[in-house]
Amino acid sequence: MKCPNCKHFAVSEKVFKGVKFDICESCKGFWFDKGELYDLVDVALKSLPIPSDATKSSRYCPKCDGNMYTFKYPQTYCYIDMCEKCKGIWLDPKELEEIKTVRGALKKEGSLEEVIAPEGVKGSLLNFVNSAISSLTKTETW
């Protein structure tokens, strides 16, 4: 497999806690097939759609050679690359640690988002329904 970052063929499969993933021996970046990041990191999102504000990455998927998109991983400061076709994720070396650390701290304080709301019409409708329910369940205090 060719590294999407440094283009070396020094990517090898590793197993940690029973989860297989790939690491580039040259740049130390990580490739996770769909679902592997969630299997390895308990605070990762199980399902991660490519958001509408994602930008096309200069990197190509090492598995299917599909287009990758760059966007901010939810509730972190790191930008990741994700394949549009196979939903694989490329993380630069420090991004894996940031996801674990930042989302782990959010989990401890009880503000970790575990599901990403849909975008577009479906997302707008869900937001409307949630706000309507919230306004109906609020009790006014005088």
Description of the molecule:
The structure is a single chain. This protein is α+β, with helices and mostly antiparallel strands and 142 residues long. The chain has one domain (11-115). Helices cover 28% and strands 25% of the residues. It has three helices and seven strands; from the N terminus they run βββαββββαα. The chain has helices spanning 36-40, 93-109, 120-137; strands at 11-16, 19-24, 30-32, 55-60, 67-72, 79-83, 89-91. It has a seven-stranded antiparallel sheet with strand order 1-2-3-7-6-5-4. The protein is globular, with a radius of gyration of 18 Å. The termini are far apart.
Can you lay out the helices and strands and say which pair or pack?
Blueprint: E1 11-16, E2 19-24, E3 30-32, H1 36-40, E4 55-60, E5 67-72, E6 79-83, E7 89-91, H2 93-109, H3 120-137
Antiparallel strand pairs: 1-2, 2-3, 3-7, 4-5, 5-6, 6-7
